């Protein structure tokens, strides 16, 4: 018999998570349901917010590229909750509705550089961090750098944390992407 994950709020969360929840609400305008799960563990929640914040705030990848990483990783990890929430963010970053649908369907993108990035993220996840020489060559020939390859890993790391936590908690999308 499985025990479902609890959701916490600002009243019943561990003390160390309460400030993090307030910061999330301030930054996002609301508290995503996923954060109600993450906050069960202050160490997990703080680590996730740090990784996510560093990826979106301190990398040289463009917002479109960051969202290719997020949507691709969430798709490869089969996290419906994250696929939906990042699909909205991806469009806000400048990806077209068709590009987002293609990523969600694991289909090639028409923009060659973004397609190489999508393939790189998929390959890293499906091959446990391994890239073939051909994968690496395509990545670098598309104009990406070694720094950006490490930044892709940072994005994947934040998605593994949230994807896996949401899969364990059986989180349902807050709204459907269509």
Task: Offer a concise description of the structure.
With 178 residues, the protein is mainly alpha-helical. The chain has helices at residues 15-28, 33-38, 42-58, 63-76, 80-92, 97-104, 112-126, 133-141, 146-169. Helix 1 packs parallel to helix 3 (42-58).
Summarize this structure as a short list of keywords or feature phrases.
9 helices; 178 residues; AhpD-like; 67% helix; mainly alpha
Instruction: Outline the biggest β-sheet.
Output: none
How many structural domains can be distinguished in the coordinates? 1
The name of the CATH architecture is Up-down Bundle
**How is the CATH topology named?**
AhpD-like
Name of the CATH homologous superfamily: AhpD-like
Structural class designation: mainly alpha
Order of helices and strands: HHHHHHHHH
pLDDT below 50 for ≥5 consecutive residues: which ranges?
none
Oligomer: single chain
**Percent range of helical residues:** 55-70%
Characterization of this structure:
The protein is mainly α and 178 residues long. The protein has one domain (9-178): AhpD-like, CATH 1.20.1290. The chain is 67% helix and 0% strand. It contains 9 helices and no strands. The longest helix is centred in the last third of the chain and has 24 residues, at 146-169. The chain is elongated and about 50 Å long. The relative contact order is 0.16.
List the helices and strands and how they pair.
Blueprint: H1 15-28, H2 33-38, H3 42-58, H4 63-76, H5 80-92, H6 97-104, H7 112-126, H8 133-141, H9 146-169
Helix pairs in contact: 1-3, 3-9, 4-5, 4-7, 4-9, 5-6, 7-8
């Amino acid at each position: 018999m499985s025990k479902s994950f609890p959701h916490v709020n600002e009243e019943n969360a561990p003390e160390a998570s309460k400030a993090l929840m307030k910061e999330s609400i301030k930054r996002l305008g609301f508290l995503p349901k996923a954060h109600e799960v993450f906050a069960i563990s202050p160490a997990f929640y703080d680590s996730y917010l740090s990784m996510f914040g560093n990826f979106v705030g301190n990398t040289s990848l463009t917002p479109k590229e960051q969202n290719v990483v997020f949507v691709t990783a969430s798709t490869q990890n089969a996290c419906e909750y994250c696929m939906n929430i990042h699909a909205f963010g991806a469009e806000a970053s400048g990806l077209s509705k068709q590009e987002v649908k293609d990523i969600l369907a694991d289909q090639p993108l028409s923009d060659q550089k973004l397609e190489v990035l999508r393939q790189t993220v998929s390959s890293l996840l499906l091959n446990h961090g391994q890239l073939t020489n051909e994968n690496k060559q395509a990545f670098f020939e598309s104009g990406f750098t070694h720094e950006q390859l490490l930044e892709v890993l940072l994005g994947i790391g934040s998605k593994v944390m949230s994807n896996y936590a949401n899969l364990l908690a059986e989180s349902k999308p807050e709204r459907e992407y269509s």
